[in-house]
C-alpha cells in the first residue's frame, strides 16, 4: 500500500491495474502528491510484488480468479469508509480494471468524484448510476470493443467523457503504448476535475 500525507483536506484513492503497484502507479501517486493531495493506493494483490507487463495473461487470470471486480470494489469501499470522515473531499482514480472498480464505487456516499482511465469493463456495468461527478478517459481504440459506442451510452448518463490519441495504456510511461501528449493532457484534465469539484 502507498500512503502519502501532505496534511491535505483532499485525498485521492488510486486503484491499480491488474499488475499491482508498479512503477506507473508509484509515479501517479507521486505526481498527485506533488499537487498537494493526500494519496492512498491499496494493494489489491495482498502485498504481492507486481506482475511484469510480459505476464499480462497471468496477471489478468490472477485478477479474475483470485480478486474479481466485486471483491476489489468492496475493498475500496472499506478504505473509503475508514477515511471519509478525515477529509473534506475524497476521490477515486482507477486505471483499466481499477477504472471499472472506481465505477462500481461511484454510487457510494462520501465520495466527491471518480476518474477512470480506460475502464473497458465498464461496458458490463452500465446499470450503475454514479452519485458523484464522474470523468472517464478513453483511448481512440480498444482491441475488445467499440469506444465510440460506449461513449454514447455513457454520455446519456450525463458523464464527462474524453477520448485521447492512442491505445489502452496511453498514460503509462513504462508501456509501449505510451503517448506522452495524451498522458499529459489526461493528467491535466484530471487535476482540473478535482479542483472544479
Automatic annotation (TrEMBL):
GO MF term list: hydrolase activity
Annotated InterPro entries: AB_hydrolase_fold (IPR029058), Dienelactn_hydro (IPR002925), Dienelactone_hydrolase-like (IPR051049)
All copies of domain Dienelactone hydrolase, residue ranges: 9-195
Pfam families assigned to the protein according to its UniProt record, in alphabetical order: DLH
Protein name: Dienelactone hydrolase
Keywords attached to this entry: Hydrolase
Keyword Hydrolase belongs to the record: yes
PANTHER family for this protein: ALPHA_BETA-HYDROLASES SUPERFAMILY PROTEIN, CARBOXYMETHYLENEBUTENOLIDASE-RELATED
Amino acid at each position: 500500500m502507498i500512503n502519502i500525507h501532505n496534511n491535505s483536506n483532499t485525498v485521492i484513492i488510486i486503484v491499480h491495474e491488474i499488475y499491482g503497484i508498479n512503477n506507473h502507479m508509484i509515479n501517479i501517486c507521486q505526481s498527485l502528491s506533488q499537487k498537494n493531495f493526500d494519496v492512498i493506493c491499496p494493494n489489491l494483490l495482498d502485498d504481492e510484488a507486481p506482475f511484469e507487463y510480459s505476464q499480462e495473461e497471468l496477471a489478468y487470470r490472477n485478477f479474475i480468479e483470485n480478486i474479481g471486480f466485486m471483491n476489489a470494489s468492496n475493498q475500496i469501499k472499506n478504505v473509503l469508509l475508514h477515511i471519509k470522515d478525515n477529509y473534506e473531499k475524497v476521490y477515486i482514480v482507477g486505471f483499466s480494471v481499477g477504472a471499472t472498480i472506481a465505477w462500481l464505487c461511484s454510487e457510494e456516499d462520501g465520495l466527491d468524484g471518480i476518474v477512470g482511465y480506460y475502464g473497458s469493463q465498464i461496458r458490463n456495468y452500465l446499470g450503475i448510476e454514479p452519485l458523484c461527478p464522474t470523468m472517464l478517459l478513453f483511448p481512440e481504440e480498444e482491441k475488445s470493443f467499440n469506444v465510440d459506442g460506449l461513449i454514447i451510452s455513457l454520455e446519456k448518463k450525463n458523464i464527462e467523457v474524453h477520448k485521447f490519441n492512442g491505445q489502452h495504456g496511453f498514460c503509462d510511461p513504462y508501456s509501449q503504448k505510451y503517448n506522452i501528449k495524451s498522458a499529459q493532457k489526461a493528467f491535466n484534465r484530471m487535476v482540473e476535475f478535482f479542483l472544479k469539484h
